[in-house]
Design brief:
heterotrimer, A mainly alpha (about 100), B mainly alpha (about 240), C mainly alpha (about 300), B: about 240 residues, mainly alpha, two-stranded antiparallel sheet, 8 helices, C: about 300 residues, about 70% helix, globular
Chain lengths: ~100, ~240, ~300
């Protein structure tokens, strides 16, 4: 279990997440992509903290902040989905092409 | 190779495989809980990395989040149980290339950079460290996260509330057109949007443009609309 | 404790616990409605055989994989919970300094397992049961979180082993009188019982297990009973001093205390009626959660 192995795994998770976030039409699936990207960064943070920083406490703090970001992304994302659905009856990103007007 | 290594490779493989399957299964509930499995594997890797609190907390938080996510999947996806094959993607090739590129770039960076090696000491009280850090030096950061979460809660309630500042937020809600600037698709709710929350699900049929979606789109606009059923306003079903 | 010795011992204890849970449930259920207790000790075993021989049913287009996995997850979480419980000073199968948090994670995944069990059959009653359970199960988990944090405050540790050691002078059930009653509610919710049974209740013709037949039914009920054993063991550890006690060996004390908690839970299961979902939600958010805060406050003041 080397640091490079952990970072490569986290890069793979990040890449899959980016693919999902870019390719999915549905809002909810798009958010799953974002979550997977954050999953990758969480793993990278834990890896760095554990194997490269000698357990500096600030590393754990960063991981906690990432978790908070996940929670915020999820809550605001769902609220936006509900709001957009109320206003536009839209649940896929294509339906918001006309958002400017 | 120690037991820890074996566990790490198995868990990482599982995390990546489940992460990939998230975007490949038809059932949205399966997709959600595959993502949860991916998170759980990462949490367990965290436990292996002696991040005992972070690992357990990841599983804890993600189980709750993915449960809520699953409910939203059922609410907002047309094919939650995966009974029909489905592929709802756009700019697919670009996304694959982008994902692969970022993976290659990051892997290259990892392999080319001389990484420091300073593993956490076995006797280091990491849990105590975390507590002291959260309520000591970094208290302001931690509190900022707390206040942000509070703002998030308020914002989420405000955003998703149906009672808007200028009346019901779904008043006059119109589904998007099939083409840019075209007439709205699906049925339109009547009477100030008192049940607008469900109206016009038929819009999917048009947007998806695939046979698999049409069935549900039609079903959505007919089911559960006893009050509106007779008004004959079924125009523009699309699909 | 090594895994090779520990795991079989744990599974053996779990097996005894399963039988005890089933027998207790049968006996107390019969006592309360005034029927003769009869062969309550062997009747559950007979029921297992009868269920196994019963006709197997299937629904239209179910999610077979998840239907199969849900009882497995549930059972696995119970085993994880039991493995976190210390059986003697410093002896638990999973040696982790955040075992309280990991147990909380297991509780959270229980909600997912029950939801999957209700979702998979692709039938109305199980699905309604699953949705109802999510609505109740998530806030109940908050209760568990606060109560367990309160229990770990005197120990100054999130490790169940330290939580037990901190109760050498005084058990948490006396030090924090609100903790155990609230945790009993959590146990009932985790095991889908009595007043907190919104998943598998009779008003939904069995809820999430309405479509289970034969081996599926046995698997789900076994997992439920296993979770009862695990959650009661956690309650005994966090509030009743776990393995602490004179004369008898520690694991026996722990078993006796677990059994006592189990009797209390089964009694409550059969004695307390179930409220409508909306009223129960109000009760949890407006009444029980503030009581949990109070419990936390008492624990904090006690620690000062």
């Amino acid at each position: 279990m080397t640091l490079s192995a952990i970072l490569i795994v986290s890069a793979a998770l990040f890449g899959i997440g980016l693919y999902g976030a870019l390719s999915q039409k549905s809002f909810v699936m798009l958010m799953m992509g974002l979550e997977l990207m954050l999953n990758g960064s969480l793993l990278a943070t834990m890896g760095f903290w554990s194997l490269a920083l000698g357990g500096a406490p600030k590393g754990q703090l960063l991981a906690i902040i990432i978790m908070a970001v996940m929670a915020i992304e999820l809550a605001i994302g769902f609220a936006l989905i509900v709001a957009v659905y109320r206003k536009r009856q839209a649940d896929v990103t294509e339906a918001l092409e006309t958002l400017a007007r | 190779m120690t037991m820890t290594d074996v566990a790490f490779y198995l868990l990482s493989g599982f995390a990546i495989w489940t992460g990939w399957r998230v975007f490949r299964v038809d059932s949205m509930i399966r997709a959600t809980f595959l993502l949860l499995l991916s998170f759980t594997s990462v949490g367990l890797i965290g436990l292996l990395l002696s991040a005992s609190y972070l690992g357990a907390a990841t599983i804890f938080m993600m189980a709750v989040e993915m449960m809520v996510m699953g409910l939203f999947m059922v609410m907002f996806m047309m094919n939650p149980a995966g009974l029909n094959p489905m592929m709802m993607v756009h700019q697919h090739r670009l996304s694959i290339v982008a994902g692969l590129l970022i993976f290659a770039a990051m892997t290259g960076a990892v392999l080319l950079t001389p990484l420091p090696s300073d593993p956490v000491a076995a006797d280091r009280p990491v849990l105590r460290d975390l507590g002291i850090e959260l309520l000591g030096d970094s208290m302001l950061i931690f509190e900022t996260a707390g206040v942000t979460l509070l703002a998030t809660m308020l914002g989420a309630v405000v955003l998703s509330s149906r009672r808007g500042r200028f009346g019901p937020t779904d008043a006059g809600s119109v589904p998007p057109g099939l083409s840019a600037g075209g007439p709205p698709a699906g049925r339109q709710p009547k009477g100030g949007g008192s049940h607008g929350g469900h109206g016009g699900h038929g819009g999917h049929g048009g947007q998806g443009g695939k046979g698999a979606h049409d069935g549900h789109g039609g079903g959505g606009s007919h089911g559960g609309h006893g009050k509106n059923g007779g008004d004959g306003n079924h125009g523009g079903h699309g699909g | 404790m090594s895994l090779i010795v520990g795991l079989p011992a744990l599974l053996a204890l779990l097996l005894i616990g399963l039988w005890a849970a089933a027998a207790l449930d049968t006996a107390i259920g019969r006592l309360i409605v005034g029927r003769p207790v009869g062969m309550a000790a062997t009747d559950p075993l007979r029921a297992v055989v009868a269920d196994y021989l019963r006709q197997r049913t299937d629904t239209e287009a179910p999610d077979h994989l998840n239907w199969l996995l849900a009882p497995g997850y549930y059972f696995l979480l119970a085993v994880v919970g039991l493995a976190l419980v210390p059986f003697a000073p410093d002896q638990s199968l999973i040696a982790l300094d955040t075992s309280v948090v990991l147990w909380g994670a297991a509780e959270a995944v229980v909600v997912v397992a029950v939801f999957l069990h209700g979702w998979s059959p692709n039938a109305p009653f199980p699905l309604i049961g699953a949705y109802r359970y999510v609505a109740i199960g998530l806030p109940v988990m908050l209760l568990s979180m606060f109560v367990l944090i309160a229990a770990s405050i005197p120990a100054q540790s999130l490790d169940l082993r330290a939580v037990v050691e901190s109760q050498r002078g005084l058990w948490n059930v006396i030090r924090q009188p609100l903790g155990l009653p609230l945790f009993l509610a959590v146990v009932m919710s985790l095991t889908l019982r009595g007043p907190f049974d919104y998943a598998d209740s009779a008003d939904l013709a069995g809820g999430t297990s309405a479509e289970d037949g034969g081996p599926r039914w046995i698997a789900w009920q076994t997992a439920r009973a296993a979770m009862l054993v695990a959650a009661c063991a956690i309650a005994a550890t966090a509030f009743l001093g776990g393995y602490l006690g004179p004369v008898l060996p520690g694991w026996l004390w722990l078993s006796l205390k677990t059994l006592a908690v189990m009797v209390a839970v089964v009694l409550l299961t059969h004695l307390v009626p179930r409220m409508p979902v909306a009223r129960m939600l109000t009760l949890i958010w407006i009444v029980l959660l503030p009581i949990a805060f109070l419990d936390l406050l008492i624990a904090g003041l006690g620690a000062l």
